[in-house]
Write a structure and sequence with these properties.
The protein is mainly alpha-helical and about 300 residues long. It has a single domain, classed as ABC transporter involved in vitamin B12 uptake, BtuC. The chain has eleven helices and two strands, in the order ααααβααααβααα. A two-stranded antiparallel sheet has the order 1-2.
Length: about 300
């Protein structure tokens, strides 16, 4: 039973990280129906930014909590700037082009950012400091779930609540929903469609950066390629839950995290990725729109 609980909580933590990245995928797709394949690299850039900031602040003698807050904030700001720039350079000029053109542009931007960080940093794994402290009040329960894992779960929950409130109860959220339904009519009633799309990229990049900081701090290392692997897994999670649905992205991420955790724990860790994608194929056969996705009806 203890081993089962360990795998369950491990999958919950892993799924929470996937969720922070998958939320960006699903938001962008919900607005412009485009898979932003450079999103995983935004996650990676956020982690590298936090590493650089944390290293500088630690040398200057700042305390642990200050380093965590400033590194996270600057990582989010820097990643949001990258997300905004990527949208303007790689996607906006192709807004009315065939879908294949935008897809190729997204893959090209992903490869560009990977190689940019590779040249700017190194191809080796770099040690990442543990920014999340161990809480004294949580020490009696640390054998069940550690403080960093608790912070990851809490952060994912807060981000999901924030995005839900943003989309359902704010003017920007209403504009996002209108833009996702009909861009032409949204523009006719005074909504700045380009601005809404940019805001969506910015918000999605911010959530990915938070995930990058948390997982790098938890794992303890980072390299230029981690964004690609995490991005693909988060994309699978978004499709599992129903691409375009925020609750679906979170649910799909948790399901994927538990699937990987239990399969690797009870069968073999050598086929971790195989289990994840086989589960995706299984879901898509019986539920093509995803767990919480809605079937689209085409108007004739």
């Amino acid at each position: 039973m203890d081993y089962f609980l360990e795998l369950f909580l491990g999958g919950l933590t892993r799924g929470s990280i996937y969720a922070l990245i998958a939320l960006g995928y699903t938001m962008v797709y919900g607005i412009i129906e485009l898979i932003n394949f450079a999103h995983g690299e935004i996650y990676m850039i956020g982690a590298f930014t936090a590493l650089i900031v944390a290293s500088v602040l630690s040398m200057l003698g700042f305390n642990h909590l200050t380093v965590l807050i400033l590194a996270s904030v600057l990582a989010v700001v820097y990643s949001c700037a990258y997300g905004f720039t990527v949208e303007k350079i790689a996607y906006k000029p192709l807004r009315h082009a065939p879908r294949l053109s935008a897809l190729i542009s997204a893959i090209g931007m992903s490869l560009f950012l990977q190689n940019y960080v590779l040249l700017a940093q190194t191809s080796d794994f770099l040690p990442f400091p543990s920014l999340i402290p161990d809480f004294d009040f949580w020490e009696p329960y640390a054998h069940i779930i550690s403080s960093p894992e608790l912070v990851i779960l809490g952060t994912t929950f807060c981000v999901m609540i924030f995005l839900t409130i943003l989309i359902k109860f704010t003017r920007i959220g209403k504009a996002m929903r209108a833009t996702s339904q009909d861009k032409i009519m949204s523009a006719l009633v005074g909504i700045d469609v380009n601005k809404i799309i940019s805001i969506t990229f910015i918000v999605g990049s911010g959530t990915a950066a938070i995930g990058g900081v948390l997982i790098a701090s938890h794992v303890g290392q980072i390299n230029f390629y981690v964004g690609f692997i995490a991005g693909i897994k988060a994309f699978v999670a978004a499709v599992l839950g129903g691409i375009g649905s925020i609750p679906g992205a979170v649910l799909g991420s948790l399901v994927l995290g538990w699937t990987e955790s239990f399969f690797t724990g009870y069968i073999s860790s050598d086929y971790e990725d195989v289990f994840a994608f086989l589960f995706l194929v299984f879901i898509l056969i019986f539920r093509p729109s995803g767990i919480l996705g809605r079937k689209e009806t085409k108007k004739v």
